[in-house]
Design brief:
The protein is an all-alpha fold and about 120 residues long. It is built from four helices and no strands.
């Protein structure tokens, strides 16, 4: 039995598409070290198979790239400039993971919608 995938932009997503696309968003929540590698792997593996999965993998990758930029580059600079008071920003880090859950929700509902800041990635 051949697996069905959404091959064109805006097509109805199959249950396989929805599950794998949601996984692209949820991988960073359960395996943080795969936050960027997981969506890249799905993007490459689904090349030529599913535009829906590629779109959501690109969304997850763009968001995780932004999260890693904020936590690895910008936050330490703020901490250094504020003589340590900026360390309070790290308590807000879990808030950066909320869009992952939202992206998985969109994927499970078969929506071709992404995060406002990175929606054009993956089209």
């Amino acid at each position: 039995m051949a697996e069905e995938y959404a091959m064109v932009w805006g097509a109805e997503a199959t249950s396989n598409d929805k599950m794998i696309a949601a996984a692209a968003h949820l991988i960073p929540l359960f395996i943080p070290l795969l936050g960027i590698i997981g969506p890249i792997a799905l993007y490459v593996l689904m090349d030529g198979k599913s535009k829906f999965i590629k779109y959501h993998a690109a969304q997850a990758l763009a968001w995780q790239g932004a999260v890693w930029l904020i936590t690895a580059v910008i936050a330490p600079i703020v901490v250094a400039v504020t003589c340590g008071f900026g360390a309070l920003l790290f308590f807000a880090f879990p808030l950066l993971l909320i869009p992952n859950v939202y992206g998985a929700y969109l994927a499970m509902n078969g929506q071709w919608q992404g995060f406002p800041a990175v929606e054009k990635f993956g089209r």
